[in-house]
Design brief:
The complex is a heterodimer. By secondary structure, chain A is of the alpha/beta class. Chain A is built from 3 helices and 7 strands; from the N terminus they run αββαββββαβ. In chain A, the strands form 2 sheets. Chain A has a 5-stranded mixed beta sheet, with helices on one face. A two-stranded parallel ribbon of chain A has the order 6-7. The longest helix of chain A has 12 residues. Chain A is elongated, with a radius of gyration of 16 Å. The relative contact order of chain A is 0.14. Chain B is an alpha+beta fold. Chain B has a single domain, classed as Cytochrome-c3 Hydrogenase, chain B. Chain B is about 45% helix and about 15% strand. A 4-stranded antiparallel beta sheet of chain B has the order 1-2-3-4. In chain B, strands 7-8-9 form a 3-stranded antiparallel beta sheet. A two-stranded antiparallel ribbon of chain B has the order 5-6. In chain B, β8 and β9 form a beta hairpin. The longest helix of chain B is centred in the N-terminal third of the chain and has 29 residues. The chains are: A alpha/beta, B alpha+beta. Chains A and B meet through β3 and α3 of A and α1, α8, β7, β8 and β9 of B.
């Protein structure tokens, strides 16, 4: 199992240009949305990383931008990595990772319908939980206003 | 091709299983494409019980949001509440007193047994046998009675608070639990006689729904679904919380990869839970049942993730806090969501009659998936 510092050094050498956050429980790495598809292959198959289990895929709406958060772990080494990526709030798009971690097939569909993020390369991007007719309306966004006013934040 | 009725252009038949169906255990709508009796694709349509829990929690305080989560996976209601309480305690660095830790773990394990009992009865009923259902509910009723006396409710118990448990256990709790353990042990052989050793069940479940370990990890399956394929993923073992590091129990693994292996994992897990309860029930320490906390909780700015092992798999609670009294974003990583995504993968190519055995051993609870 690699320590946080070892993993930080390895990731910095593999992917120049990524930044890290300080003071988090698990090593947290920030990447550009354009660079995400490039690094997924290495994260999954590099012999010292072997991050084969994605246990959480979600999105946070920070009003000025959206942020994708991926939580990865290795079943072999039991080390964890959190990857974040900032997306433009007006036209959020990022490459898919469902060809590497199949759990993303459902999770990305959920983020697509709730936040409006387009995942390029996803084989079947359509609504999962919301019924037909909700394309274009993204309920989990902070600026979503429901005329029926079920929840007032 | 997203039609929900009729035939496709290749001449395959499209049928709907659900949303009202006795075997789906919840409102799950599967659109299945069949060629004769062979399944070609399975497309789950979710959302019939979507209650926007994640969005709702953004307007509830940290003491209030815990109780909405018992409605997510209502068969492991204690464990869901436990996960949320653990996340808040981790963020505020609250120390839980030992008495509360013991009570919480005993309640969790009793809930796990109750959930597996219901699964066992319902699974046997799906495959055509009605009698095991009543046997399973007889044991489950004993646990529900204990819960009703101590926590006030039978299904959505709302017993955990950040810092401990809401009220102390009754003086007769230990005796009641010991009576239940004795009852369970005397009846357990009936289960094997009726279902596990039955030749019809074995031929309906062996070789059905093969899930290889690499696929289980890639699709994010956890809990007994993955342990039936030999993947070691018990959160109580590799990331122990509360006092799980101090109790002796085995992680149940099977290597069959088929429905029968997943079935055997759950049946053996019931025994392991009884072992844990036996070790703890006589040694509950005296002391406080709740740590002293402020009435209004404010989490520091940051993000916090906790994992627990529910009866279905790994539940993750991810709280993003901006320093206020309500969370900025909560994400519940539910085990059923990922377990359902593997259904198409294992059902493709098999017969329609085997679909019920596969869904039964995946142990899906739809409110957990839809949230």
């Amino acid at each position: 199992m690699m320590t946080q510092d070892d993993m930080k050094a390895l990731l910095s050498s593999l992917f120049p240009g990524v930044t890290f956050e300080e003071g988090t429980e698990w090593l947290t790495m920030s990447v550009e949305p354009g660079g995400w598809s490039v690094i997924t292959q290495q994260l999954r198959h590099h012999e010292d990383l072997l991050l084969d289990y994605m246990f959480c895929l979600t999105c946070i709406d920070w009003k000025v931008h959206l942020q994708m958060v991926y939580h990865l772990t290795s079943t072999r080494f039991r080390h964890n990595l959190v990857i974040k990526s900032k997306l433009d709030a007006n036209k959020p798009a990022i490459g898919t990772c469902s060809h590497i971690w199949k759990t993303a097939l459902f999770h990305e569909r959920e983020v697509y319908e709730m936040f409006g993020v387009r995942f390029e390369g996803h084989p079947d991007l359509r609504l999962l939980i919301l019924p037909d007719g909700w394309e274009g309306r993204n309920p989990m966004r902070k600026d979503y206003d429901d005329p029926v006013n079920m929840i007032r934040l | 091709m997203h039609e929900v009725l009729g035939t496709t252009t290749e001449g395959d038949l499209i049928i709907n299983v659900g949303p009202q169906h006795p075997a789906t255990h919840g409102v799950l709508h599967l659109v299945i494409t069949l060629q004769g009796e062979t399944i070609k694709t399975v497309d789950p349509h979710l959302g019939y019980i979507h209650r926007s829990i994640e969005k709702m929690c953004e307007s509830l305080t940290y003491r209030q949001f815990i109780y909405v989560t018992s409605r997510m996976d209502y068969l492991s209601a204690h464990i869901n509440n436990h996960a949320c309480a653990l996340c808040v305690e981790k963020a505020m660095q609250i120390e839980v007193p030992p008495r509360a830790q013991y009570i919480r773990v005993i309640m969790d394990e009793l809930t796990r047994i109750a959930s597996h009992e219901l699964w066992w009865g319902a699974m046997a009923m799906d495959l055509g046998a009605f009698t095991p259902f009543f046997h399973a509910f007889r044991e489950r009723e004993s646990i529900n009675d204990i819960m009703e006396e101590n926590c006030g409710a039978r299904l959505t118990m709302n017993y955990m608070v950040p810092g401990g448990v809401m009220a102390d256990i009754l003086p007769n709790f230990q005796q009641r639990v010991k009576d239940f353990i004795k009852l369970y042990k005397s009846k357990f052989d009936e289960y094997n006689e009726m279902v596990t050793g039955n030749v019809i069940f074995q031929s309906r479940m062996k070789g059905v729904g093969i899930l290889k370990p690499e696929d289980a990890i890639s699709y994010g399956c956890t809990g007994p679904t993955a342990r039936g394929s030999g993947v070691s993923c018990d959160v109580r073992k590799y990331m122990p919380y509360e006092i799980y590091s101090q109790v002796q129990f085995d992680e149940v693994l099977e290597t069959g990869c088929d429905s029968f292996a997943r079935y055997m994992v759950r049946v053996r897990e019931m025994n392991e839970s009884i072992r844990i309860v036996e070790q703890l029930i006589d040694n509950i320490p005296e002391g406080d049942f709740q740590a002293k906390t402020k009435a209004v909780l404010k989490l520091p700015k940051g993000e916090f993730y906790t994992k627990v092992e529910t009866a279905r798999g790994e539940l993750g609670v991810y709280i993003v806090s901006e320093g206020g009294t309500t969370p900025y974003r909560i994400k519940f990583r539910s085990p059923g969501f990922s377990n359902l995504s593997v259904l198409e993968h294992i059902a493709r190519g098999s017969k329609i009659g085997d679909l019920v055995a596969m869904m039964g051993t995946l142990d899906l609870v739809i409110p957990d998936i839809d949230r």
